[in-house]
Every structure is written in structure tokens, then in C-alpha cells.
């Protein structure tokens, strides 16, 4: 059996995913506050607000703490001359091998939150689908994009 890929994404990715979880939780909290006002004005049973509060707290714990941590621990990648290996997943760990001869192009992207933390994502396009490596340090993402592009060109020349 093959060893897992050796490269891990930036630890700042954990911070970014936790920030995304916080934003989601705040939005859900705003909806819950609205539901709380409706509950008060329409004199709904108190158990509705208890259930909503428990769901919000559970969602916040999962999306801010637990899921980003597991995601970051499991996200690994490795770029070799002949292939790219990706490993990721929360409950089910997916391992993907992308042959270099199948790579059509490679893009980097950075949204405002990723840019604030000096991170970028790489998207590897094949004829069948797109694969991405999230939360890489921007310089590392640029270097990796160029290396994959070079390996893909060489692999296509050999065919």
C-alpha cells in the first residue's frame, strides 16, 4: 500500500476555514434571533427556542472547531513528475491520482479572505473534472502551478 502524500496545506488554512465557519454561524445566529422574536411575539412554546439554541451551538462547534481541524489534518498532496496525488475528506477520505498527461491547465485563485492571510488555491483541470488544492501560501501556489504546468507539458511531449 502506498504512503499518504507528504505535503500538507498551510496552517493558515485552518484559520481561514474557522473564519468561514464563524461567518456561517453568525448568519445562522441572525436567523435564530429573528426566530426568537417571532417566538416571543406569537407566544410559541419555549422548547422551540431550546432546540434552536442547541442546534446553533452544535453547528458553531462543528463548523468553527471540529470540521476545520479534521479537514486540515487530512488534506495532503504530492506532485510527482508523472502524477498528482490528493488526499482529503472529512468522514470519508478520498485519495485521487491525476496523471500529468490528463492535466489541461492549472489556475490559482485567491479571494479577499485568502488574500488577507497570504493564501491561494490551485485548480487543476482535466477533461473530466477539476481538482483543487486549497489554502497554499501564495508563493508556494505559484511555484506549484508552474511546476505542474512544466510536468504536464513534458508528459504530453512524451506521448
Which features characterize this protein?
159 residues, alpha+beta, 4-stranded antiparallel beta sheet, 3-stranded antiparallel beta sheet, elongated
Structural write-up:
This protein starts with 6 loop residues before the first strand and ends with a helix. The mean pLDDT is 93. β6 and β7 form a beta hairpin. 19% of the residues are buried. With 159 residues, it is α+β, with helices and mostly antiparallel strands. 53% of the residues lie in helices and 26% in strands. It has a 4-stranded antiparallel beta sheet. It has a 3-stranded antiparallel beta sheet with strand order 5-6-7.
Order of helices and strands: EHHEEEEHEEH
Radius of gyration: 21 Å
Q: Kindly state the percentage of residues in helix.
A: 40-55%
Main beta-sheet strand count, sense and barrel state: 4 strands, antiparallel
Report the portion of residues in β strands.
25-35%
The mean pLDDT is 93
First CA to last CA: what distance? 28 Å
The total of beta strands comes to 7
Low-confidence residue ranges: none
Strands across the major sheet, in which order?
1-2-3-4
Count up the helices. 4
Q: Which structural class should the secondary elements be placed in?
A: alpha+beta
Shape: elongated
Brief overview, please?
With 159 residues, this protein is α+β, with helices and mostly antiparallel strands. It is built from 4 helices and 7 strands.
Could you outline the blueprint of secondary structure elements for this entry?
Blueprint: E1 7-8, H1 12-41, H2 46-74, E2 76-79, E3 83-88, E4 94-99, E5 103-109, H3 112-116, E6 119-126, E7 130-137, H4 138-158
Antiparallel strand pairs: 1-2, 2-3, 3-4, 5-6, 6-7
Amino acid at each position: 500500500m502506498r504512503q499518504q502524500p507528504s505535503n500538507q496545506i498551510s496552517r493558515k488554512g485552518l484559520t481561514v476555514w474557522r473564519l468561514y465557519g464563524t461567518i456561517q454561524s453568525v448568519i445562522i445566529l441572525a436567523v435564530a434571533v429573528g426566530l426568537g422574536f417571532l417566538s416571543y411575539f406569537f407566544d410559541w412554546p419555549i422548547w422551540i427556542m431550546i432546540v434552536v439554541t442547541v442546534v446553533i451551538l452544535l453547528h458553531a462547534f462543528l463548523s468553527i472547531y471540529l470540521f476545520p481541524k479534521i479537514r486540515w489534518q487530512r488534506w495532503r498532496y504530492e506532485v510527482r513528475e508523472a502524477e498528482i496525488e490528493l488526499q482529503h475528506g472529512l468522514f470519508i477520505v478520498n485519495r485521487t491520482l491525476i496523471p500529468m498527461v490528463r492535466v489541461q491547465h492549472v489556475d490559482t485563485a485567491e479571494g479577499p479572505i485568502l488574500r488577507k492571510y497570504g493564501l491561494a488555491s490551485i485548480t487543476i483541470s482535466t477533461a473530466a473534472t477539476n481538482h483543487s488544492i486549497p489554502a497554499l501560501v501564495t508563493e508556494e501556489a505559484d511555484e506549484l502551478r508552474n511546476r505542474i504546468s512544466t510536468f504536464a507539458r513534458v508528459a504530453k511531449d512524451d506521448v
